[in-house]
Amino acid sequence: MTEMNKELFLNETADFSQYNDVVFQISALAKKDRLVNGDLTVNATIGSLYTEEGKILVFHTVYDSFRKVPDAVKASYASDLAGNPDFREEIFKWINRNENIHLPHAVLAAPGGTGALFLMFSSCLEAGQTVLIPDIYWGSYNLMVSKHRLKSEKYHITENNQVSINDLMKKAAEIMDAQGKVMVVINDPCHNPTGISLGKEKWRKLISFFNELSEKGPVIVVNDTAYLDFAHNPEHITDYMECFNDINDNVLISLAYSCSKAFTAYGVRLGANIILAKNAARVANVENALKRTLRGTWSNANNGFMHCVVDVLKNHKEEYLKERDAAVAMLQKRADIVVREAAECGLPLYPYHEGFFITIPIDDAQLLDKYHKALMAHHIYTVKFQKGIRIAICGLPQAKCRGLARRMHDIYKEIIT
Predict the structure, then answer these.
(1) Is residue 281 situated within a structural domain?
(2) pLDDT at 290 (0 to 100)
(3) Does 353 fall in a domain?
């Protein structure tokens, strides 16, 4: 233990350097720029869905319901540590909207999708073991890896700019040989930051592979579904989950679900972890272990908003779906503009399918940093990921999307010539 750690009362692995969230940091710069340069400024950092008028989008069906939740209910603890029983039931029915899943399951409420993921990062591996994550990923995965004293291995999500699961399978097999257990995170559908979705056939191949791999040891598949409800066809985007029914006894699936996106409630902090396995006793064991973790971490989920979600899904679903579908259509129009104009001017993109984000692939770290700074110098604010520049179309009105690909293409050409 270092002398400084002793003075700060921290354990040996604590990182006490100043933490700055990159997204909030760059977004703040964009807001300052806009005060000076007005509409010339493009803030493509925001990871929340905004209207065409530049305001955060809220589903009125949701907040009309939330206003009707009595104050005493909002102030009260949930009736169960794992979340109110009716919330857990409705969330599972919502995820299993087409009745594709026929497995023993447990649902645990959590503070957002982050909380749902935290349960798995904190509970499935021993310190020093390796978790498998995508090679371009939401930065909080790394924070959770570090927090729980894990290591991470990255798998390529594309091969020759085509969606591929080959490297995932290769790396998973190597990890199994090294430690006798595999935990893999698959952010799908609507991968952040690329907008890639695997589709049912690739999932079928993955489940077959995981079954074979699990003959050597346990396999935990963490499916981060944060953006699931903003796929092009949200009513059928869960069809791939039918493949889960084929898992064998040594495979466990965790669906990390976020109410933040689905119910436009980012700051409310509610989500769920859905545990699936072939064996009901194993599901119960995992549920009991995770209950202890959540009790000692956040104690209780947001009671008032659980009541709201239940009311929306049971009594106002049609009104809610109209709002959700209109938001999906708005998002798709923005994506169509950027993808089409990128193709016209030759700006490379990861193969976008659906979701909040589109990303320009850049492997060279120095070039990536140079390009990111050049964009800001031209009043375009984006988020620099491990292997690319993320454009948050969720926060950009169509007027800002038009011409953006050409501007970004021209800036790229400037710095490489």
Answers:
(1) yes
(2) 98
(3) no
